[in-house]
Design brief:
This protein is an alpha/beta fold. Helices cover 35% and strands 16% of the residues. The chain folds into two domains: 34 residues; 441 residues, no CATH class. The chain contains twelve helices and 19 strands. It starts with a helix and ends in a 14-residue tail after the last strand.
């Protein structure tokens, strides 16, 4: 045997040994990994599945198919918008009674700060008699289409944990967002756009990307933020010289390699990678058409107050409607501009110009298109504001309101919610909830119920236990259901 023959024999022996350890080792590893992964997540990583985000049936017949969550980051003042208190007018400027604030410390005001009556007038609207402040110029048009919750409470008192808690059900970072749970449970009705889209206006959210993250769920389910200007997602256009055909051949080869890797490892993140490449390819055609608001009628643009080509809350509301029409399951519109520690009335008037018309237009638009019946709309922030005034000359603050987690207001519409109702009640100063308290987990449980889920059974096994959006809390609020 010559030297070349010996080298060939040794090469075959080594290759055979490597293949043995690769096949046996990976095979045993895959079985061990499969026992640790949630069955649903592992099934969605199956390379035989053409679309890992294919639509799935919920636990029972759903009233709603999709969600548009209008998140008013910064915390709007419920006392200046929804919860009129004559006693604040009567005792305006007098110290808050100590029995209300005993043992409570605030970030920017003293607990005995003076009471502060709203500068807005309130009136009742529609057949429902919904009581709204005159800060709203447009929302009264849909007073009979919304359900107002005056008795929200939360555990968090600062913005970042408050936003994370409202969006993930936990004050700790790293849990899956509400939108991620929804797409995990229901999948998507489109292959050309992400299942969960995030749109932003105003400032940046205090909670950051954790507000729309996937936590310990496969990254397939996290929200996809669209850029405020230009292409919705970077790098959608091919480099010069790369044709559509060349790109398709490259992606096909890459897909084969990724599917082979997933077959060996069972890693659900590989399914995410495959889906991301394919989604980006399809979005090169779907995204430009989606973002072209000039396709809308002049009447529709005027109804929303849209200025084509400009980033705004109004544009995002119209985009939200266009997204759900194209099968997107969950759209989250973040508008960070409501943290009014000073000049709360002035700040609210400013934000009403930015949001009131478009919010109302979205509800009316969905209603006239027959989409409101199976689309949930949620409007609200992370907590409320104090009935006491925030005034600090050293900080150049006056006539503001501090953070308040014991009582605040949100409203919901569509998708199986009662229309034209107001539930919950606060005390004479709007400090504490005294009737029908609704905690964050209760809101989440109710939203999941309308989407067809038993919130106690929509779970994912992680670190040895089953997690859920509502953790170990939450009850469905029957008074809100149609």
């Amino acid at each position: 045997m010559n030297v070349q023959d010996e080298l060939n024999l040794e090469f075959k022996r080594l290759v055979t040994r490597r293949h043995f350890f690769r096949d046996c080792g990976i095979g045993l590893g895959s079985m061990a990994l499969a026992s640790l992964l949630n069955e649903k997540a592992f099934a969605q990583a199956n390379p035989q599945s053409k679309n890992p985000l294919a639509a799935k049936a919920p636990h029972f017949a759903a009233r709603a198919k999709r969600v548009i969550y209008l998140f008013m980051a910064g915390a709007p003042s419920q006392l200046d918008l929804f919860d009129y208190k004559p006693q604040l007018v009567k005792y305006n400027g007098q110290p808050m009674p100590k029995e209300f604030t005993k043992g409570i410390n605030y970030a920017f005001i003293k607990s005995d700060a003076g009471l502060y009556a709203s500068e807005f007038k309130f009136a009742r609207h529609g057949q429902s008699g919904a009581e709204l402040s005159d800060a709203f110029k447009h929302l009264p048009k849909v007073a009979d289409d919304i359900a107002i919750i005056r008795s929200m409470t939360t555990e968090a008192i600062n913005h970042a944990p408050g936003q994370i808690f409202m969006n993930t059900g936990s004050v700790q970072f790293g849990r899956p967002s509400f939108g991620a749970w929804v797409t995990y449970g229901l999948g998507s009705e489109t292959q050309d756009l992400p299942a969960y889209v995030v749109l932003t206006s105003g400032g940046g959210t205090s909670g950051g990307a954790g507000n729309w993250g996937c936590g310990f769920l496969p990254t397939l389910y996290q929200g996809v933020p669209f850029q405020r200007t230009g292409p919705p997602i970077l790098s959608l256009s091919n480099p010069r010289g790369i044709t559509r055909e060349m790109q398709r051949r490259t992606l096909d080869t890459l897909k084969e390699l990724n599917e082979h890797h997933m077959e060996l490892t069972g890693d659900p993140e590989t399914a995410t990678r495959i889906n991301a490449f394919e989604m980006a390819y399809r979005m090169q055609e779907s995204a430009p058409e989606l973002m072209d608001l000039s396709k809308e009628s002049k009447e529709t643009l005027a109804m929303y107050g849209v200025e084509p080509g400009k980033n705004s809350y109004a544009n995002n509301c119209l985009l939200a409607r266009r997204l759900i029409e194209r099968g997107v399951r969950f759209v989250q519109v973040f508008h960070e501009a409501w943290d009014h520690h000073s000049e709360v009335a002035k700040g609210i008037r400013s934000q009403m110009k930015n949001t009131d018309q478009a919010t109302t237009a979205l509800i009316l638009d969905l209603k006239q298109r027959g989409l409101l019946d199976d689309t949930i709309i949620v409007w609200g922030g992370e907590f409320g504001r104090t009935p006491m005034v925030e005034s600090d000359p050293d900080a150049n603050r006056s006539k503001g309101r501090d953070h308040h987690n014991k009582a605040f207001t949100m409203f919901v519409a569509g998708g199986g919610f009662k229309r034209g109702v107001t539930i919950g009640k606060t005390d004479e100063f709007g400090f504490n909830v005294v009737e029908d308290p609704v905690q964050v987990h209760d809101l989440h449980a109710t939203l999941l119920h309308l989407l067809g889920f038993d919130h106690t059974k929509l779970t994912f096994r992680y670190s040895g236990r089953d997690f859920r959006l509502t953790d170990v809390h939450g009850v469905v609020v029957d008074k809100l259901l149609a």
